[in-house]
Amino acid sequence: MTGTLINVATVLVGTAVGSTVGARLSQGIQDRVMSGLGLITLVIGVDLALSWSGPGTTSHTTLFVLGGILIGGIVGEAIDIESRLEGFGALLQRRLSPNRESRLSEGFVNASLLFCVGSMTVVGSIQDGLTGDYQVLAAKAVLDGFAAVALSAALGWGVGLSAISILLLQGTVTLGAGVFDQFLRGEALAAMTSAGGITIIGIGLKLLGVKDVRVGNYLPALIIAPALVGLAKLAGIT
């Protein structure tokens, strides 16, 4: 759990710095910060999305990712995960910040998705759980810390609440590392990473104000994409 605790700490520190500095910045500077973060998020998303063509993959991997995104989007829309996340964020906002103009809920949802979706989250947590090596999570912690500064400068201290999401998700994967390691290898991991990258692209588009693609409703793709790889192997397709 060492890596996860470091990650939580950097996000909280980054949020504290960003919230303090952000209040002193003009609206124009805040907009530029948000746009810059959106562009960086797009680059990260594209890089992860292209994992389908990496080592250990096959010509079918892109189909698994496509299937994961489409089926995952349908499942997520049916469950309406995005609204549930927003509802939880709104609940936190009512309890912690009654100000209706507060962007606490938006900061919590966007930061949770950005910090918890990606291969570094899964791979780093598994390594930490199996061997105690938290270098990957430490690197992720540094990146998340700087992102928290930029994000909280525009959206406020609600970004810091994403530390709860990080603790729950990465902590669960770390404690159950032996189970996850058996399934998330090779093509299955590449498919999940690629699907995660596509959802991160959606976050980038939202941060840039291009389109709100309701990224939360695509989260089932992170399970469905690697599951399709497993089903294909059982069927002898790959």
Describe it:
- The protein has 238 residues and is an all-alpha fold.
- The protein has one domain.
- The protein contains eleven helices and no strands.
- Helix 5 packs parallel to helix 8 (162-175).
Task: Describe this structure in a few short sentences.
This protein is mostly helical and 238 residues long. The chain has eleven helices and no strands. The chain is globular, with a radius of gyration of 18 Å.
Task: Please mark out the parts with pLDDT under 50 across 5 or more consecutive residues, or reply none.
Answer: none
C-alpha geometry:
globular
The mean pLDDT is 82
Number of helices: 11
- In total, the number of strands is 0
Number of structural units classed as domains: 1
Largest sheet: none
End-to-end distance, in Å?
35 Å
How big a fraction of the residues is strand? under 5%
Helicity range: over 70%
Structural class: mainly alpha
Helix and strand pattern: HHHHHHHHHHH
Report the radius of gyration as a whole number of Å: 18 Å
Descriptors:
238 residues; mainly alpha; 11 helices; globular
Topology:
Elements: H1 2-22, H2 27-49, H3 61-79, H4 81-96, H5 104-116, H6 119-131, H7 135-155, H8 162-175, H9 177-183, H10 186-207, H11 221-234
Helix pairs in contact: 1-7, 1-8, 2-7, 2-10, 3-10, 3-11, 4-5, 5-7, 5-8, 6-7, 6-8, 6-9, 10-11
